[in-house]
Design brief:
Blueprint (H helix, E strand, L loop, with lengths): L5 H7 L1 H8 L2 E5 L3 H13 L3 E5 L24 H12 L4 E5 L18 E4 L4 H13 L4 E4 L11 E5 L7 H12 L6 E5 L14 H4 L23 H18 L2
Parallel strand pairs: 1-2, 1-4, 2-3, 4-5, 5-7
Antiparallel strand pairs: 6-7
Helix pairs in contact: 1-2, 2-8, 3-4, 3-8
């Protein structure tokens, strides 16, 4: 019977679509990368999605985040993303967690319940905690490396963390993974050297922050990263493609 996934089924076949329908994927970080990954998974027929992020949509997210529109500014990103998924596939079960994933919140999540985990968060501590939890549960995980301060969407590669180069975040992750005895980790990284963002006081979040009081702010960083519409989106779609491929080929 013709359905919204018929064109996908023409490529993968009915058994693969059943695998996707019965799969549960957790996406940690629903920003520029994670938002596109969520959308692609929903449009691919993944049956259950867990969305984890404590941040709200900001005006400065409109340049790159799929669920960010004038109407969603101020909403929690997980709420906005859930609304989009339900418009795309109302049969998809969406679980949302307004949580900043770190060591003190990791016990909220049962990683053995997931068929795949996507790391699209931007703190090294959170990433390492996430990877360790997924590895301990024998759950496949894929991590986004640095997507900010990049302008070349063709420079991204899928590789093991120990095969990466150029990316400063990947360098840190390599060292920390080795220190923790993590032997393999699938990542998406860029071979493009990062650009140092301008510090323009006329458009600086440091001087003109519009985030609500009490929310976690991007100004805690040394540099507020620059971004484009066409780099984080590519990373998110590459990640979703890897997840779909691995789920279909799993036993």
């Amino acid at each position: 019977m013709l359905n919204q996934f018929s064109r996908t089924q023409l490529l993968f076949g009915p058994e693969a679509m059943e695998k996707l329908r019965h799969s549960r994927v957790a996406v940690f970080g629903i920003g520029g990368v994670g938002g596109y990954a969520v959308e692609a998974l929903a449009r691919s027929g993944v049956g259950t999605l867990d969305l984890i992020d404590d941040d709200r949509v900001c005006l400065t997210n409109l340049n790159r985040q799929l669920h960010a529109t004038r109407k969603t500014v101020g909403q929690y990103k997980v709420d906005a993303a859930k609304d989009r998924v339900e418009e795309i596939n109302p049969d998809c079960r969406v679980n949302i967690y307004k949580t900043f994933y770190m060591p003190d919140t990791k016990d909220q999540f049962d990683f053995s319940a997931y068929d795949y985990v996507i790391d699209a968060i931007d703190t090294v501590t959170g990433k390492l905690t996430l990877v360790e939890a997924a590895k301990a549960a024998n759950t496949p995980v894929i991590c986004s490396m640095g997507a900010g301060n990049k302008t070349d969407p063709t420079a991204f590669r899928v590789a093991d963390i120990y095969e990466t180069s150029v990316c400063p975040l990947a360098r840190v992750m390599r060292t920390e993974c080795r220190r923790r005895g993590i032997k393999h980790l699938k990542v998406v990284y860029s071979t493009e050297p990062p650009i140092r963002p301008l510090e323009d006081p006329t458009i600086s979040c440091r001087r003109h922050c519009i985030c609500p009081p009490g929310t976690r702010k991007c100004t805690v960083r040394r540099d507020i990263p620059g971004s484009t519409a066409f780099v984080p989106s590519v990373v998110g779609l590459i990640i979703a493609g890897e997840v779909v491929k691995d789920l279909i080929n799993s036993k």
